[in-house]
Structures are given as structure tokens and as C-alpha cells.
Design brief:
elongated; alpha/beta; 2 domains
């Protein structure tokens, strides 16, 4: 699934002429749904009610500057993740981007060409999509690493259950529990890209289900099942070890938000 399109933009500026031009540019040229707000003190409420995809925010405003508005939005759960692009007449874009506590998509310098504004916002939106994709990848890899770290304990639990069956004989309830564990392992291993373990656990589940649906007790020995469970455990150790080694040798990607090139600035009119 690709990055969803930019549709709704909130523009916050105390200059009514700028609001009118920007709103016209974004609606007429890009088809965005635009809401404007000329009061920095009411900007957070406007963002909460409108629910924009992106906020175009002026830096220099009376009463509460853009940095204050930005902080207020970040402190609210309903607006804290909305990406922000600053507008500023201040020439030093880098100084704004390095302002303490500000993690915005970028800065558009005033004055700017309103005809090119939708194009530049689309470029910022693509940067936002790449940042989100990279953040998701990092979160997934963290979850995968935790899952792999817990595999040994899970495999030990499966092997202990099979060992009890081998020692004490067939027990339908214990076998059903083992089938459920194999089922969950097959599914979760597949989600975390451990294909060999997923196939091995899935095959074990299928074998156990055949035992449960056939004549009771099964004709095979519980010791045979214990050996199959041990084979699943070996597959888990081998694949988890390979995944850990690959992660150790991979090159860290760093913070995508800082590595991506910022869209080119708008040219003054």
C-alpha cells in the first residue's frame, strides 16, 4: 500500500491577504480542501476540528509565534503527529530547522511563488511518507528482534510438553495444547519473516491435527512426535541465529528524517 495522497491542509497565518492567496492556490491548482486560521491562539482547536493531513504554519505571529503553536499541537494527542511545514520571512532556514524541540518537515521562505506552492507541498508530503515508512520499518525490526529473542523459551516449552507425552503416553488435552502452540508459531513466524520456522511449525500442526481427528490413541509413538518437536526447535535456532547474524552485519540506516534531501525552496516572486 502506497503513501496516501495529501488532501487536507490547514494554513495558519495572521496575514489575511496571504491566507487568501494560499487558499486559492491550494484549492484551485491542487484540489486540496483548505481551512485557514488567522489566530495562533486558536490554531490547535482549528487543527483538532479540521483534522488536516498537513499544517502550513507561519513563524512570526503576534501573541504566540509558530514555535509556540507547534509545541501546543505536539502536546495534544489529537494533533501531535500532524506534519508541519513552516513559512517564514527569516532568511536562515537552517536556524529554524535546528530550533530546539522542532521536528518539522521543512521551511518555505517568504515571499514565495503561490503557483509552485502545491508542487513543493507534494514534495514535502513525499518526504513525510518516506519518514513514516522508515519509522515503521524500525518499529517492525524492533518487534522482530524481541520475537527472535523469545523463541528459545517458546521452543523449550513445546519440547517439554512433547517430552511429557513421550514419558507418560498420549493425552488428548496436552496434544490439543501442543497443536495450538504450533498454530500460533506458524502464524507469528511467518509474520516476522522466519519462513522455515513457519513451514516447520505448520507441518507439525497438520500432523497433530491428523492424530486428533483419527482413531484414539494414535498408532504412532509419542516419542516420534517428540522428535518432530525437537526438529522444529532446531529450525527455530538455525533461522533465529541467521537472522541475528544478518542484523549484526547490516548497516544502520540512521534517521530517515535527516538523511532525506529537503524539497527545494520556493523561488521568491
Amino acid at each position: 500500500m502506497g503513501h496516501r495522497p495529501l488532501k487536507h491542509v490547514l494554513v495558519v497565518d495572521d496575514d489575511p491577504d496571504l491566507l487568501a492567496v494560499v487558499s486559492l492556490s491550494l484549492t484551485a491548482l491542487a484540489g486540496y480542501t483548505v481551512q485557514t486560521c488567522d489566530s495562533p491562539l486558536q490554531a490547535r482547536a482549528a487543527a483538532e476540528s479540521f483534522g488536516p493531513d498537513l499544517i502550513l504554519l507561519d513563524v512570526m505571529m503576534p501573541g504566540l509565534d509558530g514555535f509556540g503553536v507547534f509545541k501546543a499541537m505536539r502536546d495534544s494527542p489529537s494533533t501531535g503527529r500532524i506534519p508541519v511545514v513552516f513559512m517564514s520571512a527569516v532568511g536562515d532556514r537552517r536556524q529554524i530547522l535546528q530550533h530546539e524541540g522542532v521536528d518539522c518537515l521543512g521551511v518555505i521562505s517568504k515571499p514565495f511563488d503561490p503557483v509552485r506552492l502545491p508542487e513543493v507541498l507534494e514534495e514535502f508530503w513525499q518526504v513525510h511518507g518516506q519518514r513514516r515508512a522508515e519509522a515503521h520499518r524500525r518499529e517492525f525490526e524492533s518487534l522482530r528482534s524481541s520475537y527472535i529473542g523469545e523463541l528459545a523459551e517458546k521452543m523449550t516449552a513445546m519440547q517439554e510438553m512433547a517430552a511429557v507425552l513421550a514419558a507418560e503416553g498420549w493425552d488428548r488435552s496436552a496434544l490439543q495444547s501442543l497443536a495450538q502452540i504450533a498454530h500460533r508459531t506458524a502464524g507469528s513466524a511467518g509474520l516476522y519473516r522466519l519462513a522455515a520456522l513457519s513451514r516447520s511449525a505448520g507441518a507439525l500442526e497438520e500432523i497433530i491435527n491428523r492424530m486428533l481427528s483419527g482413531a484414539w490413541p494414535p498408532a504412532s509413538s509419542p516419542s516420534d512426535l517428540a522428535r518432530l518437536v525437537q526438529a522444529v526447535g532446531r529450525t527455530a535456532r538455525t533461522e533465529a541465529g541467521g537472522a541475528a547474524e544478518a542484523a549484526a552485519h547490516s548497516t544502520p540506516s540512521g534517521d530517515a528524517g535527516h538523511s532525506l534531501a529537503a524539497p527545494r525552496p520556493l523561488s521568491p516572486r
